């Protein structure tokens, strides 16, 4: 008998409403406590420097406390959302892709996930605009609004392409079971070579662009996808093969941005 | 009232950022895999939690911590604070005048990384996959220590004005040596932890610190020297996580030897 047809397995005793409420409350309480532990260090650091080092009172204490409450509630909600939605979606899709066995669709999905989530990333937009200003002030670019806007857009596309490609390579690596370190070392060599080839004004921006590409929504999805793939393929270890996607996504943008700086 | 308007606006921005991701996910799920989602109600609720939670989180940070943190980065790097009122015009820079800046850099790097939601997500997953061998707190603290060292060293670089790529290349060499020595299973996770450190909480404060330093130190250009701090913050956690794994492996081996002797 298939386990799904087994009445003993599919119909456990229905929990009473009081039990559900109690479980929800206690999990909410513990995740609030977790959030508090996450936030406490920043509060201590800022309070210490304000009161002891700079010797100034803390302004708008009421607003700060209210803001801190929002941060706590937000983090607790986010963690619940991870468990309910982002983790299961990523893993389930990985499982379905493996079951269907269509490599090209999986790689297309990997590319779109990397490209789509990066192109609209707010931190990247800020860095690209900054880079356009620098290029203009260095005389590499006409300092007109239009020239700067198109330079910034090109830079964003370069980074988004880089992240899309990174996820594709990372997924392919999981399927093949290659060791992550050889690919990463190849990437490091690429970064070092490009550093000497690229114009100096782009190097700092390129290095920073590696860090800002992976947003808070992308990271859980991509991690769950990697772990899900490694768990559904025979002979892959979720810890050894499932992680590493984000590492590629923070390495390739450096190379692509330096290449962009060389040609534009 | 102003708060509600602000909150509504940032909720819309968040929706705009998340919608393309959802379109890709559900497009593939329905059109290609042709599978209904299991527990659609639960998934919908979870997505709602993620969007609402992140908006509240960012709004709260913008209200409570970011303005004060940015102001602090400016004040700590101001020449009047570094050299005292009388010496402010001297313009002579020695790296050891910046003691409080390094302390601030290290502590702000540590504390913002601990609060980073993306790192929490990766730590939760690593904990689950390793069947509890990697603890959520242990990984987060290791990454945060790495970020602290990275930001502090990055501010030192801006103060001394040494080229960025020397540090990064030296860092790569250390990472490669550690890769050869660290336990094999930790390596992919260690590489990943570099990318997740620099996100919503860390970037605004660390970038403000770098720009503040580059603007106030004579001879540094904000556009050339202000960048690079994020790269430091992303590189050093890789080393810290591998070091943490090496230390815990050595400790486990010593314990095993002790028990086999007795």
Characterization of the model:
The complex is a heterodimer of chains A (264) and B (262). Chain A is mainly alpha-helical. Chain A has a domain of 178 residues. In chain A, helix 6 packs parallel to helix 9 and helix 8 runs antiparallel to helix 11. The N terminus of chain A is likely disordered. Chain B is mainly alpha-helical and 262 residues long. Chain B folds into two domains: 64 residues, no CATH class; 197 residues, no CATH class. Chain B starts with a helix and ends with a helix. The model of chain B has no long low-confidence stretch (mean pLDDT 85). In chain B, helix 9 packs antiparallel against helix 12. Chain B is globular, with a radius of gyration of 22 Å. Chain B is built from twelve helices and no strands. In chain B, 48% of the residues are buried. At the A-B interface, helix 2, helix 3, helix 4, helix 5 and helix 7 of A face helix 1, helix 2, helix 3, helix 5 and helix 6 of B.
Strand content of chain A: under 5%
Q: Supply Rg of chain B.
A: 22 Å
The largest interface is: A-B, 105 and 101 residues
Structural class of chain B: mainly alpha
In whole angstroms, how far apart are the ends of chain B? Answer: 70 Å
Order of helices and strands of chain B: HHHHHHHHHHHH
- The sequence of SSEs of chain A as H and E is HHHHHHHHHHH
What's the pLDDT, averaged over the residues of chain A? Answer: 84
Continuous helix count of chain B: 12
